[in-house]
Structure formats: structure tokens, C-alpha cells
Amino acid sequence: MATRSTRSTNHALTAMSLLYLTVLVNVWIQQEPNLLEDLEFLSKDSSWFSFDWHSHGYTTTRSMFKSLFTHANWEHVLSNMFLLWMVGRQLFVPSDLEAETASSSRWKYFFSSWTSPFCFLWIYFGSEVLAIVGCRFLSHLFDREWEGRVRRHRTAWSWQWVPDAWKDMYYTISNAQQVMKLRVWQNTPLIGSSAAVFGVIGAHCYIALCDRDHPAKMDSRAQMLCILKIGMELSRTPLSLDQISSLGNDDNIDHASHFCGFLGGFLLASVWHVLSRKWRHHGSQHRYYETRCV
Prior knowledge:
It comes from Nitzschia inconspicua. It holds the Pfam family Rhomboid. The chain crosses the membrane at residues 12-29, 121-142, 190-209, 256-275. By secondary structure, this protein is mostly helical. It has helices at residues 2-31, 61-67, 74-91, 98-101, 106-110, 117-156, 164-174, 176-187, 194-210, 220-235, 241-247, 255-293. It has one domain. It has twelve helices and no strands. The longest helix has 40 residues, at 117-156. The chain is elongated and about 75 Å long.
């Protein structure tokens, strides 16, 4: 029993150490903005590392990595890291049943505990990746919607002798403002790890709602604040071409990444919860059979 308790404590320290290390690295890079450029694998001149910043329309490995550790200003980095620390220290802690149901296999326990360092990497980095995928999917939907509008306008012309290229050019010029806002939304450089932080918040919301064994809970006031915040992010996230034109981006905040990151963290936490329960149940059965054999 002492061995399991020690193992759980070690994992808790490792997971929290990764969280604290992430906070320190973000603050350090904000103070030394050229630090990332000094890394050898970020200085390679290849197609995978062609752009410094990612956007909704294009993303590279380099831009995705840099977005996790760069921020617009000190207010941005301090608010993000404070929020990450406040939520992470409640999320990455052992559940009530982990000490009793810890798997006999070290690797199974490593991939089933909320205190595992892989859990932090799974939720923090995974939320950023899913946020980028979600925004890229929205960008693809907007392109398809625009192409559909162009095709419908092309077939609606009564003068069939007019070339299709002229019809498309006329429709594009007539809707130049909408096209410009779409391209700006797709190609504006994005910065900051807010999507990953919102992913941790989404994971915390899932735990508070669906995992009764985890000590991280949310009172009614915290739930209301979370619902209001996510509702605000959703209301500022464009879901169609018309919403891109109407919403705009006056505050220079990437609300789409925030909302997609929250959904990504919620989804990743649910997957981790299901797998952890499965592996803990398997570990409990294994110890039961060992006891019967003894």
C-alpha cells in the first residue's frame, strides 16, 4: 500500500512540475523573444518551417510550436499563465480512488492517472492541436460556402454566352468586402497559447461535471461564470460567411481558437477519463486474481 501511495505522489509531483515548467518557460520566452529563433530545429529552411506564425488558413509545425510559448504582451502572458496555474493545480491531482485502484503495471498507471505527466501533455498540447484543426475546418467550410455561392450565381445568369470567369469576377467584385474579411480572418497571423489554456479549462469542466471521484469541483457560481465565458466566446466565433462580416475582429482576440480549444480539452478529458477507468478496473481485477492465487 505504501508503494502505491508513493507512486501516486511521484506522479503528482511530475505533473505539477510540468505545469510550473510551462508557466516559467512562457514567462521566460516573453522576456527573451529571440530564444525560439536560437533553437537549431526551428532554424531549418524547409517547407515545414516556412512561416513564423500560423493562421486559420495555414499552419506549419514551427508555427504551431511557437504559438504555444509566445504571447502578444505581458498582460496576455500573465493572464494566461495565472489562469493555467489556477485551473491546473485543481485538475492535475490524484482522484479519490487512485491510491486504491492503482494498476500493478507502471506503464498502465502512467497512462491512467490524472497526476501523470502524460495527462498534462495530452490535454495541454492536444487542446492546441484540436483548436488548430477546428479552426482549419471552419476555414474549409467557409471556402466551400463561398464556392457554392459563386456556383449558384453563375447558374442564375440569364446570359449564358458570358464566360464563367467573367461571372465569377463580377460576383467577387460585387462582394469584395465580404471576400476581404474572409481572407483577413483566414490569413491573419495568430499568437499565444490561449487555446491550450482554454483546453485545460474545458478538461476541468468535464471533470467537475462527469467524474465524481475527482476532487476538482465547481460550485454554482463558478459554473455560471464558465458558461457565460464560453457563451461569449461562441457568440464571437463566426460559423458562416455572414457572421464573419457582422462580427469582425475589433478586439484582436482569436475567439474561434478559444472555443475550439475548450471543446478539444473537454473531449480529451472525456477520452482520458474513459481509458483511465478501464485500466484501473483491469488493474483491480489483476490484483484480485493475484490475491486469490496467494
